[in-house]
Amino acid sequence: MAKRESNFMNMFVTLSLVTLVSSAALGFIYELTKKPIDDALMFKKTLAVQIVLPSFDNDPFEDLIRVPVGKDTLNVYPGRMNGETTGVAVETSSPGYGGDIRLLVGFLPDSTIREVAVLEHKETAGLGDKILKSKSDFPVQFEGKNPENFRLAVIKDGNGDVDAITASTISSRAYCLALQKAYDAFKKGNLK
Amino acid sequence: MSNLKNFTKGFIRENPVFVLFLGLCPTLGTSNSAINGLSMGLATTFVLVLSNLVISSVSKLIPDKVRIPAYIVVIASFVTVVDFLMKAYLNTPGKNFEPSIYDQLGIFIPLIVVNCIVLGRAEAFASKNSVTSSMIDGLGMGLGFAFALFLLGSVRELLGNGSLLGFKFIKGDGMLMFVSPPGAFLALGFLIMLMRQLNERLVKN
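YS: structure for the whole thing
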């Protein structure tokens, strides 16, 4: 078969057809994967809430509270057992080295940090990504600490108690800043 | 060219990374660990095989002057499909909330569109050859790319973190430089040198 000639009509028809077929196919795949994608994102958040909160019998997503801190408004998910608050999970973020670091911070009613889960980050692999518990012990130092007497800033800056990640001071600072924001929301919301 | 030769050329003789120097941006960007390199390579293979299949079967119908935009639309569609699929099925965090493969590869998945290997194979091979040999070419080239990324990722993970595929061999930090961009260039340079040596020996025999 001979190659089709490059005249206006041929080019117009070809490109229209190619884009039409492509967009139809993409629309189809989008519909097909929409539910699994939503499920995966929901699963991720549910898992994070389960990790950072102690046992609860309510639906933290249903009982969502929104607390304004500075320019932002943070999502707060309270966990309750028989109506008593067992802990609250605060969704917080702060710009790190490669983009926003989004954390879910679990507080006990006495404002002690229970556990932190990283929801999203774009820190450098092997350096800044040590904010993940799977990569280093950096996040462990916050567990069981109360920001009332544990200053959330890196030691190097002279006003904190946090042992920063080697060669990743920016990521460490951002992590602390996000925690501080979460703590402020916790205090401001009076969430005991 | 026999089918077997067509398939194996992507690994050493015409390896996209070590010999053709195509697609170096994702190579350097996603090879900070063995598993990242491998997943990126396999995602690219998927796109390469399917785009070669479609392009080789419709290339006669596409007028020459608009072939590049037409090819790019086809490639971009397949990349979006990969992005949707990975977001849906490779987006489960680990037990201790380790980030999913989709989260780790991040921006590099949509960027497969601009990977020169994909358009390069469409233009240089698929548009002139039969459907079967184009698919074999795509598979060989894609797996050769995955092999190169896996090799580079392994070297960088081993030197930079003291681990391989997540298993730690050395306590503490490795040579941190190797997980950051300068280490990527250095490791790639030495690997290219080794592959050239190997290639020359193969040609002599």
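YS: worth flagging: Strands of chain B lie at 163-164, 167-168.
IM: good catch. Also The interface with chain A takes residues 32-33, 36, 60-66, 69-70, 73-74, 76-77, 80-81, 84-85, 87-89, 91-94, 96-100, 103-104, 106, 160-161, 173, 176, 178-180 of chain B (CB under 8 Å).
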